[in-house]
C-alpha cells in the first residue's frame, strides 16, 4: 500500500505543474514576475482562510512556529519570482528542471536547520543531479571556464530558486512540527498563516515598487483565479507531505514533475527539447530514482 506522504507528494506535483503552466501564460500576458507570483497567493488565500474559520478547535502552536513560517513564506515568494523570470529566458521543461535543484539542496538545508539528512549514497545521487543541471545551462558561446558557465542568467535563476525553495520547504516542515494537532489540521493551519504573510508582504512590495500591478492582477482574475485554485490544492498537498516526512524525501518523489513538465512543454507550448536537454533531464531524473532507492 502506498504511504500517504508519497500520495500527497505526487498529487502536489500534478497541481504544481498545472499552476506553473498557468503562471507562464500570465507572465507573458501583461503581468510582471511579481504580479504573476502575487496572483498565486491572492486567489488562494481567501479559500484556505474560510476553511480554517470552519475548524471548530484551533490548534496550539509552539513559540518557534512564526519564525519558521515567516522565513518559509518570504523565501517561497523569492523562489517563485525566480521561476517566473526563468520562464522568460528558457523553455518550460528546462525552466522547471533547473528549478528542481531544490531536490538536491533540500537535504543539505535540512541538515543545517532541522538536523535531518541522508546517507552518503543519497548524497552521491544529488551530485549526479547537479551534473544534469550543468548540462541544461546552455551558456553563451564564448571562450569560457566553469565561471562563465555558472554565471549564465538561466543557471543563476534556476539555482537561486532551488535554494529558496529548499529553505522554504524545510522551514515549512519546521513550522508544521510546532503545531499540536493531527497532520491534516497542522498542514491547513500552517498554510493559512504562511499565506497571510505572503499576501501582506508581496502586496505591500508591489504597491510601493510596482504601482498599478495589484490592479492588473485583479483585472486578470478570470485566469489568475485558476492559479489560486491549483496553488491551494498543490500547497495543501505539499504541506501535508512535509508534515508527514522529511522534506528532502518529499521533493525527491516530486521529481516526477520533470516528466510532467516535459509533456506540457511539447503538448501545450509546442516547444522543442534538444538532445542535450533530454540527457540532462534524464540525469536529474536518474538521480532522484537513486535517491529514493537508497532512503
Helix content: over 70%
Share of residues in strands: under 5%
Q: Write down the secondary-structure element order.
A: HHHEHHHHHHEHHHHHH
What about the largest sheet? Answer: 2 strands, antiparallel
CA gyration radius, whole angstroms: 18 Å
Strand order of the largest sheet: 1-2
The stretches of 5 or more residues where confidence is low (pLDDT under 50) are: 139-143
Number of strand elements = 2
Structural class estimated from helices and strands: mainly alpha
**How far apart are the termini?**
18 Å
Total number of helices: 15
In round numbers, the mean pLDDT is 81
Oligomer: single chain
Provide the domain count. 1
Question: What global shape is seen?
Answer: globular
Précis, in short:
The chain is mainly α and 295 residues long. It has one domain (4-294).
Topology:
Layout: H1 4-27, H2 33-42, H3 45-53, E1 60-61, H4 65-87, H5 92-99, H6 101-113, H7 120-135, H8 146-150, H9 153-176, E2 179-180, H10 183-209, H11 213-219, H12 221-244, H13 247-253, H14 257-267, H15 275-294
Antiparallel strand pairs: 1-2
Helix pairs in contact: 1-2, 1-12, 1-14, 2-4, 2-10, 2-11, 2-12, 3-10, 4-9, 4-10, 5-9, 5-14, 6-7, 6-9, 6-13, 7-15, 10-12
Keywords: Membrane, Transmembrane, Transmembrane helix
Domain EamA: 4-137, 154-292
Pfam families: EamA (PF00892)
Amino acid at each position: 500500500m502506498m504511504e500517504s506522504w508519497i500520495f500527497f507528494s505526487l498529487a502536489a506535483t500534478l497541481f504544481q505543474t498545472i499552476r506553473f503552466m498557468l503562471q507562464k501564460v500570465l507572465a507573458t500576458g501583461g503581468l510582471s514576475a511579481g504580479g504573476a507570483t502575487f496572483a498565486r497567493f491572492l486567489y488562494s488565500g481567501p479559500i484556505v482562510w474560510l476553511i480554517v474559520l470552519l475548524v471548530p478547535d484551533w490548534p496550539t502552536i509552539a513559540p518557534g512556529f512564526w519564525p519558521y513560517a515567516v522565513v518559509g513564506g518570504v523565501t517561497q515568494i523569492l523562489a517563485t519570482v525566480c521561476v517566473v523570470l526563468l520562464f522568460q529566458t528558457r523553455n518550460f521543461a528546462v525552466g522547471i528542471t533547473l528549478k528542481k535543484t531544490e531536490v538536491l539542496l533540500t537535504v543539505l538545508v535540512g541538515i543545517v536547520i532541522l538536523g535531518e539528512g541522508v546517507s552518503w549514497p543519497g548524497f552521491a545521487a544529488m551530485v549526479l543531479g547537479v551534473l544534469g543541471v550543468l548540462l541544461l545551462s546552455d551558456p553563451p558561446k564564448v571562450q569560457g571556464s566553469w565561471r562563465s558557465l555558472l554565471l549564465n542568467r538561466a543557471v543563476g535563476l534556476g539555482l537561486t530558486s532551488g535554494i529558496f525553495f529548499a529553505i522554504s520547504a524545510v522551514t515549512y516542515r519546521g513550522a508544521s512540527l510546532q503545531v499540536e494537532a493531527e497532520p491534516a489540521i497542522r498542514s491547513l493551519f500552517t498554510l493559512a498563516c504562511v499565506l497571510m504573510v505572503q499576501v501582506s508582504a508581496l502586496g505591500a512590495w508591489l504597491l510601493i515598487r510596482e504601482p498599478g500591478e495589484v490592479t492588473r492582477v485583479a483585472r486578470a482574475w478570470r485566469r489568475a483565479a485558476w492559479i489560486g485554485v491549483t496553488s491551494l490544492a498543490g500547497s495543501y498537498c505539499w504541506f501535508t507531505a512535509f508534515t508527514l516526512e522529511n522534506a528532502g524525501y518529499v521533493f525527491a518523489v516530486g521529481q516526477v514533475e520533470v516528466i510532467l513538465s516535459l509533456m506540457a512543454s511539447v503538448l501545450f507550448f509546442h516547444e522543442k527539447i534538444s538532445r542535450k536537454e533530454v540527457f540532462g533531464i534524464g540525469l536529474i531524473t536518474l538521480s532522484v530514482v537513486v535517491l529514493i532507492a537508497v532512503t
